[in-house]
Amino acid sequence: MTQTHRIPGKGLLIDRARPVRFTFDGVEVQGFHGDTLASALLANGQRMIARSFKYHRPRGVMTAGSEDPSALVEVLEGSQQTPNVRATTQEIHEGLTARSQNRIGSLRHDLLAVNDWLAPFFSAGFYYKTFMWPRAFWERLYEPAIRRAAGLGSLSGHHDVAVYEKAWAHCDLLVIGAGPAGLMAALTAARAGAEVILADEDVRMGGRLLSDQPAVGGLSGPDWAARTVAELAAMPNVRLMTRTTVTGAYDDGTFGALERVGLHVPAPGDLPRECFWRIVARRAILAAGALERPIAHPDNDRPGVMLASGLVSHVAKWGVNPGRVVIFSNNDSGLATARHLTAQGIEIAAYVDPRAIPVTEDFPVYAQATVTGTRGRHGLRDVAVTHAGGTSMIPARTLALAGGWNPTLHLTCHMNGRPVWEESLAAFVPKPGMVPGLSVAGAARGRFSTAACLADGVEVAGEVLRDLSLRPKKTPVPEAEDAPYAIAPLWAVDAGGRAWLDFANDVTTKDVRLAAQEGYASVEHMKRYTTQGMAPDQGKSSNVAALAVLAEATGQGIPATGTTTYRPPFVPVSIGALGAGGRAEGFAPQRLLTSDAKSRAMGAPMIEAGLWYRPSYFPRAGENDWRTACDREVAQVREAVGTCDVSTLGKIDVQGRDAARFLDFVYTNTMSTLKPGRVRYGLMLREDGFVMDDGTCARLAEDHFLVTTTTAAAGLVMRHMDFVHQAFCADWDVRLISVTEAWAQFALAGPKSRAVLASLGIRADLPFMGCTHIDLGGVRARLFRISFSGEEGYEIAVPTRYGASLFEALLSAVHAEGGCAYGMEALNVLRIEKGFITHAEIHGRVTADDVGLGRMVSAKKDCIGKAAAHRPGLTEPGREQLVGLMPVNQGETLSAGAHLYNERDLATRENNQGYVTSVAPSPTLGCWLGLGFVKDGRSRMGQVIRLDDGLRGHKVLVEICDPVFFDPEGGRMRG
Amino acid sequence: MRIPCPCCGSRDRREFTYYGASVFLDRPAEDAGLEAWDAYLHLRDNPAGVTRDLWYHDPCQSWIEVERDTVTHAILSTAPVARRRA
Q1: Which strand (E) or helix (H) includes residue A211?
Q2: Which candidate from A252, A725, A726 shows the least CB-CB separation from B1?
Q3: What pLDDT, on a 0 to 100 scale, did the predictor assign at position A125?
Q4: A874 touches chain B (CB under 8 A)
Q5: pLDDT tens string A854-905
Q6: Would you tell me which of A93, A359, A758, B5 could form a disulfide with A266, CB atoms 3.0–4.6 Å apart?
């Protein structure tokens, strides 16, 4: 193929000096730089590009934009394979591979074309009525078969490795669409000093000016557009965004927009394929123009049947030669198109119009006539025109349909607004105020002539500028054609045979009438019954005609029938673009400890805790599983000393004269009696009486506290404390700030921890639960004597920038004392041996009393959650209480999540006695240990109960015991 | 959706954490009785129209009372909750 269907000298967007080779269905095709896949294939005489959704009918290109219902293709290969790309928007580049889709065999000889012969059986509701029985066949046979036969493109089956991007932009005014109205609106606003973003879906700005090419202000349409765009581009307060489709209107001036960035570039390198923009605009103007609609007549779907506007664009922008053209129109714009094409040397074989119009044109006119059929198996050959004198078969290569224009008002409906029917235009037009802050200008609100669009852009921009308190400068409206628009609605031609309304989902007039007949007379029901408007094009070319046919069938009239709801997005948006950056490591932030690099270098597998990454264990040579390393680490802590990075705990700095009073209100226990230099364990409730979090509270000075939270609840507790402060005691002298990231903090635990401190030059004369400032090699650090292991324990905190070097120093010192670094596994074993709780136990449904800390709720003062904690349901007998669990046969394992039943009871919900929250293999006690909750557990010590893990099929008899398994007197910890 | 933070100006809703109806500001006395506490903790209106609720602006840590319309999504007013006590 060698571009046989190109008009010499025509084609605004193509560069004939730059040929581009690509493949379509494996065949190499040549086009020019600037071509779309559609224009290049048409220029090579290839009219058939796709197979239709249901009947596998040959389909071609209907439009020159993103609204095309038919010309869907797959592009790229391997993991880059992208289905359902509209050939009308995909720009070609060297090496592009494209394939037709939804076929078995070749495009020309699709085996599934048999569906077309079976069409009488496939009307609306066919599946619902037919594949009812036997029931079991649906999932196994019917559905897979139907999905295979009716469908769109295919997925690669690989991860989408393409790069996507997301971005935010802010402006005073967002202008959507850069046709005559949009350009004038942007110009008016920009000259007045507004920050303007002008977004346009196409490669070049100008809209219909580039296709219809009317004279504007003494220049050709394209020249005037180019000059205006150049003026805008030179202004610092204007941002021009081409290839950018505004996809949705959201609350408070937020718009979604999809920019095509790399899909048209041969070697995109680091360029993202697409960028999803969130544009926040104080005001917006929708100047998206109007979309032409087809007329439903028999066999109106053959390759070669186009919309008149699509044909004009292909001629003007890409120099496509359509051959002999028949135009079927019910309005003046179709007639203007016929004259325009004739003037450019295109042969109009017939102009067909149902109206009684004069026949004095330079081409054959069939007035009071309709197109009643077409012929041509893989592409249009003849058009049947029925007129007063009978039916003529007119040979033609292209049939252009001009059924009138629908204002592109979709965005105005995105917040549930409903457009109104405008009889004179036979179209829906937007009402003012459908989306707050969004005005509509030009053809998008039914002002169709070039002059009207230009003037409307200036006028609407003027109104918007006044809202923005900016003064519009005088912007003269250039002169242009101002032809009136007259239309005689014609939605469907009934002449036997199938007449397509929705080309994308293969919905014909017959289907819509059947829906009405079977009771689906509401437009929303008709849509779902027939699937009209539910394809990737969302019925852009078919919605209005379909509801008009429905209105006719029900006799309700169009305004009473109404439209279906237009929802975002205006064009399909890939999930990749919406979730740009959110895959794999981008899914969530990664918080890394100052010890992270060293821990990884030591071979520690990292485990995610909240957003933090913490070492699970530090394997030594010969330790091939977590258990061996963990047992050794626990033993070293109990016998010598260990160190562990505990920086992930939330740290909140509380200061002020009323800081103690505030903490008394937030914690169940009393913090105001704490002496400076001392630390107290604290428990915090939610206002509904359940435990929220626990932690320590250190009084660094009279008016200065440092409280810690659990890792997981750090953000929650900060928010909660801010709420209590701001809502209930904003007048107190107290200030809170999170200092979690400001301090790196390391635990030292074990009988030799004091020796380690000494080797670091730290005097360790601190009592249990004491805290102090220390000098650590010239760095002001903090030392706390607290323990989460049950051993003599300290925590050293240094400003984060010293964390890595402190960890190194601690490692050497600990190794010298026969100790080690320990990870999360050992930390968990150590705390379970001591019965210390974590969020496995304080999971949001337990009270202070349930976890054995009822005495920590002070009777002497109010605190958050205190009143509700005394509710009958939270204080009555029968609640599940925290207990320890040990296997009766020492060698048996326990499992977390298991439920507990009396020994002879069945494992039913009614018999449930409680559940297991944490388990660990204890090298210290030589068996597995568990923590869990048992009904009235504290009065059942010594009883044997059955642990039943239905999920893992694991049953063990366990003895209920005190949750503190090791050193219950705490002598080791107090040292 | 955008919320005008009294501290930072108009910000996208992704910066905020929602908390529920602003009646949560009217904390009963400790001894107000079960019914009052039940109402405070659990009973909420579900208005189609104007509602007042609590939002936390994470970047500046302000709790904000937002008056808005659940039908039109319009934000009618915002104020820091701290203003009630300060």
Answers
A1: helix A208-211
A2: A252
A3: 72
A4: no
A5: 999 999 999 999 999 999 999 999 999 999 999 999 999 999 999 999 999 9
A6: A93
Which among B31, B61, B72 has the least Cβ separation from residue A722? B61
User: Residue A219: exposed, middle, or buried by beta-carbon count in 10 A (0-12, 13-18, 19+)?
Assistant: middle
Backbone φ and ψ of B15, nearest 5°: -85, -5
- Interface contact A727-B63, CB threshold 8 A: yes
Q: How high is the mean pLDDT of chain A?
A: 94
Whose CA is closest to A50, among A378, A519, A483?
A378
**A251: Cα separation from own chain's centroid:** 17
Check residue A275 and give its pLDDT: 97
Query: Could you say which DSSP state residue B83 is in?
Result: G
- Crossing angle of helices A180-191 and A221-233, in 10° steps, is 30
List Cα–Cα distances, A190 to A171, A217, A283, A473, B46, in angstroms. Answer: 11, 20, 13, 10, 44
A551-557 LR contacts (CB < 8 Å, sep 24+): A552/A491, A553/A512, A553/A513, A553/A516, A553/A517, A553/A521, A554/A516, A554/A521, A556/A521
List per-block mean pLDDT (blocks of 10 residues) for chain B, which spans 86 residues.
Answer: 95 95 96 95 96 97 97 95 85
Q: pLDDT band for position A763 (50/70/90)?
A: confident
* Token pair 């979309």 in the structure block, residue: A291
CB contact under 8 A, A254 and B2: yes
Question: What is the distance in angstroms between the Cα of A872 and the nearest Cα belonging to chain B?
Answer: 9
H and E: helices and strands count for chain B: 1, 6
Two tokens, residue A216: 């504007």
Nearest CA in chain A to B1: A251
Number of domains in chain B: 1
Average pLDDT over residues A257-261: 97
Q: Report CB contact under 8 Å: B41, A688.
A: yes
Does residue A134 have a cis bond before it (omega within 30 degrees)?
Answer: yes
In chain A, what percentage of residues exceed pLDDT 90? 87
In this prediction, residue A150 carries a pLDDT of 60
Domain that holds residue B78: 2-85
Question: Any idea what the CATH number is for the domain that residue B51 is in?
Answer: 3.30.2270.10
Verify whether the Cβ–Cβ distance B80 to A726 is below 8 Å.
yes
Chain B residues near residue A434 by CB distance under 8 angstroms: none
